[in-house]
Specification:
The structure holds 2 protein chains of 2 kinds. By secondary structure, chain A is an alpha+beta fold. Helix content of chain A is about 35%, strand content about 20%. In chain A, strands 1, 2, 3, 4 and 5 form a 5-stranded antiparallel β-sheet that branches. Chain A is globular. In chain A, about 25% of the residues are buried. Chain B folds into 2 domains: about 80 residues, Winged helix-like DNA-binding domain superfamily/Winged helix DNA-binding domain (Arc Repressor Mutant, subunit A); about 110 residues, no CATH class. Helices cover about 50% and strands about 15% of the residues of chain B. Chain B is built from 9 helices and 7 strands, in the order ααβααββαααββααββ. In chain B, the strands form 2 sheets. Chain B has a 4-stranded antiparallel β-sheet with strand order 4-5-7-6, covered by helices on one side. In chain B, α3 packs across α4 and α6 runs parallel beside α9. The chains are: A alpha+beta, B alpha+beta.
Chain lengths: ~160, ~200
């Protein structure tokens, strides 16, 4: 077992208010997608409020929603992102979100058993935007291993 | 490596061996290959190992069915997930595709990309849809549910890096290729293969 987990933040700027008809399809799909994530192999945790939702969290800007999750590995996150029904809302994201002019998804390793904070996540996104993918803050396209020690333990 | 891989396929018997293994959904043993291709076991093993060395096949030890005395595990072979492209002189369209996909995402031009894919699909349509999908490299097969599934994703590397965009584009193109003749084309990703499946309309699920 790895002693690190993978933290993931992605943000999206809404085309319209979350309670508007334009976003109704997206909002209607959320419970199903959350449920799918929670049942996916390697899922550890996600940021949510008492209702199981996270769209009320707006730590960046009033029209920017956040998705903060923890997974066991890059592969488990990747399998959820594009090998499940999550792919369908991803395909349609331009119906609901406007493009951001900088990176909108960041990954980083955390000690297993700990949870990331929004402040930490914001710092990682800023680091990625400032210096590109590195071991501190990276992307699904250019992942970094947790540490040399982890790489060794995976092969033994 | 890729040139080496292509060179390994020049030998006709070896190519027949490769084509047999590649077309099978499950890993196959040396004996199965020898029997299917009509060659001896030693020769089958020779070609299978050459193809493995060239990176075209992957070998593994299959757990043997049966209890004690079933013997040592049989070596099984399947097509390698590695991609091989050769162009002479060198061209790198995948690199270009990655750059363009990133640009599309950056400006949010996915709907335009889907429209372009649908237009391309309409040009590719014609004749039997499943035969056309085979020609396009999707390796279609029908599952027990009369759903046509696609064993290969021709855009695999790019689907990996830009899943929403590339799978959406693939869906739009395949909708146009297959047409509306009693089929529903939709995203239905499994652990491997293409994210698109073609369901029969009169098939309730």
């Amino acid at each position: 077992m790895s002693d690190h987990h993978l933290a993931q933040l992605n943000i999206a700027r809404l085309r319209a208010p979350i309670d508007s008809p334009d976003l109704a399809d997206f909002v209607a799909r959320l419970p199903e997608i959350h449920d799918l994530a929670e049942r996916s192999p390697g899922y550890v945790w996600r940021l949510q409020d008492d209702s199981g939702d996270a769209t009320a969290f707006r730590p960046f800007e009033p029209d920017v929603i956040v998705n903060l999750t923890v997974w066991e590995s890059v592969e488990s996150l990747r399998a959820f992102v594009y090998r499940t029904a999550h792919l369908e809302p991803m395909r349609r994201r331009r119906e609901w979100f406007v493009p951001l002019d900088a990176e909108h998804l960041v990954l980083w390793w955390i000690p297993a058993g700990t949870l990331p904070s929004i402040e930490e996540a914001a710092g990682k996104l800023a680091a990625l935007r400032r210096s590109g993918p590195s071991a501190e803050a990276f992307t699904l396209r250019e992942p970094f291993p947790a540490s040399i020690d982890d790489r060794r333990s995976e092969t033994t | 490596m890729s040139l080496e891989a292509i060179a390994a396929l020049r030998e006709p018997v070896r190519r027949t061996v490769y084509e047999y293994v590649a077309a099978r959904a499950e890993p196959v043993t040396r004996n199965e290959v020898a029997e299917a291709v009509g060659i001896g076991r030693t020769l089958a093993a020779f070609h299978l190992d050459k193809l493995t060395d060239a990176g075209l096949l992957e070998a593994a030890n299959a757990p043997r069915a049966g209890g004690p005395g079933a013997g040592r595990p049989a070596k099984v072979y399947r097509r390698s997930a590695a991609e091989h492209t050769v162009s002479v002189p060198p061209r790198d369209y995948r690199l270009l595709a990655g750059v363009l996909a990133s640009a599309v995402e950056r400006v949010g031009a996915e709907p335009a990309a889907y429209a372009a894919a649908a237009a391309q699909g309409a040009k590719l349509a014609g004749g039997d849809a499943v035969a056309r999908l085979a020609e396009l490299g999707y390796e279609p097969y029908q599952d027990g549910d009369r759903t046509v599934r696609l064993r290969n994703c021709p855009f695999d590397a790019l689907a990996h890096s830009h899943p929403g965009l590339v799978c959406g584009l693939n869906l739009a193109m395949l909708e146009a290729v297959v047409g509306d003749g009693g089929h529903v084309v939709r995203l239905d990703p499994g652990p491997t293969g293409c994210c698109v499946a073609i369901h029969s309309k009169n098939n309730h699920r």
